Amino acid sequence: MVNGYIGKILRVNLSTQTCTEEPIDSKKARKFVGGAGYGAEILYTELKAGIDPLGPENKIIFATSPLSCNVVPGGGSIMVCFKSPATGAWGESRCGSNFGPDLRKAGYDIVIIEGKSETPVYLTIKSGKAQLKDASKLVGKDVYKKSDLIEAAESIEGKKPTVMCIGQAGEEQVLIASIMSRDRAAGRNGGGAVMGSKNILAISVSGKAKPSYGDEKGFKAATKGAMKTVKNSEMRDGFYQFGTMGDMPANDEDGDWPSQNWKSNSWGKGAALFDEFQENNLIRPNRCYSGCPIGCGRICEVADGKFKTPVHEGGEYESISVFTSFVLNDNMDAAVHCDYLCNKWGLDSISAGAMIAFAMECNENGILSENEVDGLDLSWGNSEVLPVILKKIAFRQGIGDILADGVRKAAQTLGRGAEKYAIHVKGLEGAAHDPRSGKLLGIAYGTANRGMCHIHPLEGMAFDRGKMHWGMINHGVRDPEKIDRWDEKGKGTDCALLQHAMILPDVLGTCKFMSYAGLDPELWAKMLSEATGWDMDAKELLQVGERVHNIQRLFNMREGLRRKDDMLPERVRRVPEFGTYQNEENCIISDYEALLDEYYKACGWDIETGRPSRQVLDELNISSWADELEELGYLG
Fold first, then answer.
1. Secondary structure of 215-250 in the HEC alphabet?
2. What is the pLDDT of residues 54-69, one digit of tens each?
3. Is residue 291 within 8 Å of 312, Cβ to Cβ?
4. Residue % of the chain over a pLDDT of 70
């Protein structure tokens, strides 16, 4: 037994319909901790290169850590890891809800799902007992209905379990399908399609298990101190009062709001749209899990009209942005409605909005004919078409069948020059932040292991524009207050160091916003040490982050990714076509290749290929893998 952990991994083989237990490995726990760290070790070790992400050989892992508990700031998290069907590379997604803590209460730190069931099933875990059950009655139901049915069936003495499930998009193996915990999503990289391909529709967890702590009193004191730090933070107040939507006006003004499929980095309507949401759609703030000290969620609705939408949790910055600025829609009710539909059907809202923007531009340039788009009017700003095309994507109907494969594959299918309108890195559609607002985001987008992601592992714009350093000045990162957002030199190094730090919430199974509210590597290390009994300082914890970052990189190298896959789309390296920054040459990265060289050097990777070196693996204490990797040509 390892202190701080429940101590058990559940392995579910859908092909044989068996559930078996394995112990947490104490040595692996110290090296990789949990979450996307332990998950990366399992996937790299157990998957073979080149497997079909939608085949039975793929595995999907639900992973927690010793800090995945309600008393830890941000501890209401679950990390989901898999080979992505959208990118063919490393896939991970976080969901903020009670599922992570409740999985541990149900008796397990990690669940590994492998194989494929011949018939639809769901997994129920109650107090250490796991069982696969018939899910035929769940087939074709949306996320809310599936959740209702499972909660009713698996309740114990009136107490409902916590459920994660896929919607119809996952069942249809839409490559941008999410895994939902009610209105909360493990959204990116297509995990919902992986579950759908395996014929597992949901997981239900409940129980009262508790771990043994290395120093229980010390753990309580450390978490109490961390909670105080967060609650006294100005960032916490802003998140609670305005949610992530509160960034919309400033992002628009500062050129951090991709507009019209990235033709520009601003639109000029951010403030007005935010005000409209606050006045007409917002009901109240909400916490995604019990005990969250921030409460950035928004309970909202559309009370009446053609986009009437029931009360739900939505109104998140990324989701609303892709259904407004990405497609030039200034009808907030339509955006709120589309966000709700993504939750209902189990779609990654960021990728879904990006797919509609891509389709609109293909239509504008004659790549998609009226017949190919099923007669739909895909004009920019047409709010009425948005929910219609969303449904086609979720159910793979008509043009939606092509768009359901993500922007890279859709562009390849369409041809005729569609590729230049496909904004992605490694096959993952870009989120609602623009690297023309600050150069560090550009290199972070290009090098992120899961694709063009703004937050896994690093939100670069928060360094350049927000002047945040997350406590990393003490670990080699320059003071952002002394650096202009248009500067380039040095940001490759800063990005590498910050990635090693900001991957830590993914490894610890916590919410990244807590780092924004004051939790630095020292505080994370303190809580982890008290929970486990390890004497782990910030330096060792940051090395864990670097180790995990490299393993995910090796996963991608093994799948054939190289330096060319770390490039930014041409459009985001050009001056915006309209908006506040259309004449601002300084906003574009002048020498991305040099920035990438600097980043590789800081990581200790080969400049030509981007492969990690043997020396780096030795320093990270994973040299046991080096002989095999060197023989296969995966090392620099």
1. CHHHHHHHHHHHHHHHHCCHHHHHHHHHCHHHHHHH
2. 999 999 999 999 999 9
3. no
4. 100
Using alpha carbons, select from 192, 224, 215, 4 the residue that is nearest to residue 86.
192
Residue 635 confidence (pLDDT): 76
Q: Which two tokens stand for residue 248?
A: 């919309």
Residue 457 preceded by cis peptide, ω within 30? yes
* Adjacent-strand bridge partners of 605: 612
d(CA 487, CA 437): 11
Please answer whether residues 307 and 324 qualify as being in contact, where contact means their C-beta atoms are separated by less than 8 angstroms.
no
Task: State pTM to two decimals.
Answer: 0.98
> For tokens 């960032």, what's the residue?
235
Instruction: Name the helix (H) or strand (E) containing 499.
Output: helix 491-502
As beta bridge partners, residue 204 has: 124, 163
The per-residue b/e assignment along 492-530, b for 16 or more CB within 10 angstroms, e otherwise, is: bbbbbbbbbbbbbbbbbbbbbbbbbbbbbbebbbbbbbb
Token readout for 620 is 């990270």
Determine which helix (DSSP H) or strand (DSSP E) holds 328, and give its type and residue range. none
Can you read off the two tokens belonging to residue 517?
């509210």
- Whether the CB-CB separation of 322 and 350 falls below 8 Å is answered with yes
Structure tokens, 117? 């069931």
Distance separating the N- and C-terminal Cα atoms of the chain: 38
Give the pair of three-digit tokens for residue 174. 């839409």
**Residues 150, 152, 155, 160, Cα dihedral to 10°:** 80
What lies within 8 Å, CB to CB, of 342 at 6+ separation is 178, 185, 319, 348, 349, 352, 390
The rounded mean pLDDT for the chain is 97
Task: Give Cα 403 distance to the centre of its chain.
Answer: 20
Would you state the structure tokens that stand for residue 142, as one six-digit string? 């949306």
Helix (H) or strand (E) holding 66: none
List the structure tokens of 395: 């159910």
